[in-house]
Specification:
It is a single chain. It is built from 11 helices and 8 strands. It is an alpha/beta fold and 298 residues long. The chain folds into 2 domains: 162 residues, Rossmann fold (3-Layer(aba) Sandwich); 119 residues, 6-phosphogluconate dehydrogenase C-terminal fold (Orthogonal Bundle), CATH 1.10.3660. The two termini are 26 Å apart.
């Protein structure tokens, strides 16, 4: 038997609740914004309100900076036997939960790798996690029954549980999600200097590479700040590669290039490495795997 509560009825929380409803589980929906919880309930995601007795598992679907406080609050209220979260950063919430004195034996960090650039319950999709990885980051204190419950949650949502350490997870999403969001955002910001005539020439390539820049700036400030060191490491290497390309283009753009062969080789090398890197990205599950939009959109 599986009973659940979802705290935070945004995109991710409501999508989880919808997936659970499809499996016969009726989640209890809680949100500091009552209208958001009612909207999720109207979509068929569950019932609004605190359960009469503790549920098996509560999902904390709030941004990273709020995870520890919300976990502490609802453990004290006796919401559930075990708890997980869906934030796209794992190390900082875990440390903060320990500092607040949360019962870490009943908590297992989680991150479903599915998302969209939209936010809120109306953007939720019941199949958002189908075929996608769902990362679990249990601590040394996490009890086995709590880990099993979070694995069951992932499987009920159609995802594949993957166990990682908090630090390994944060380095992985810095490379595959957080740094790409920054790059897409900075590229999209360049469009502010374009005139209407130029922007009318926009093609699908530009739309694809800037799609995720539509994400909520406030949420992404929280996400990036919570994983700042790992993201900065990736962007430092990216900036170094970009500088090489800029210098090669500057040289090739002069009337008489000083090092035409070297600059051309550098440019070609960057393009070839891009092709090789892109080839390493796993094929998406049915419906597409948007890792850069996967950060915990509460």
């Amino acid at each position: 038997m599986f009973s659940a509560a979802v705290v935070g009825t945004g995109l991710i929380g409501t999508s989880i609740a919808l997936a659970l409803r499809d499996q016969g589980v009726v989640p209890h929906l809680l949100d500091k914004d009552p209208e958001s919880a009612r909207t999720a309930a109207d979509l068929g995601a569950g019932v609004v309100g605190f359960p009469r007795e503790p549920v098996d598992l509560a999902v904390i679907a709030v941004p990273p900076q709020h995870v520890a406080l919300v976990l502490k609050e609802h453990q004290l209220l006796g919401l559930a036997h075990d708890f997980t979260d869906v934030a796209s950063v794992k190390d900082r919430p875990q440390r903060e939960a320990a500092e607040l004195g949360c019962d870490l034996s009943r908590f297992v960090g989680g991150h479903p790798m599915g998302g969209r650039e939209q936010s809120g319950p109306l953007a939720a999709q019941r199949g958002l996690f189908h075929g996608r990885p769902w990362v679990l980051t249990p601590s040394a204190a996490s009890r086995e029954s709590a880990v099993d419950r979070v694995k069951e949650l992932a499987e009920l949502c159609g995802a594949h549980p993957v166990v990682m350490t908090q630090s390994d997870h944060d380095r992985a999403v810095a490379l595959t999600s957080h740094a790409p969001h920054v790059v897409a955002t900075l590229l999209a910001a360049r469009l502010l200097s374009g005139d209407d005539c130029q922007l009318r020439l926009s093609g699908q390539g530009l739309r694809d590479t800037t799609r995720i820049a539509s994400g909520d700036p406030g949420l992404w400030t929280d996400i990036l700040g919570s994983n700042a060191g790992a993201v900065a490491d990736v962007l430092t290497e990216f900036a170094s590669d970009l500088q090489v390309v800029v210098e090669a283009l500057r040289d090739l753009g002069t009337r008489v290039p000083e090092q035409p062969h070297t600059s051309t080789a550098q440019l070609t090398s960057a393009l070839v490495r891009g092709v090789q890197g892109r080839a390493r990205v796993p094929a998406p599950a049915s419906g597409g795997l948007h890792l850069s939009g996967a950060a915990a959109r509460g």
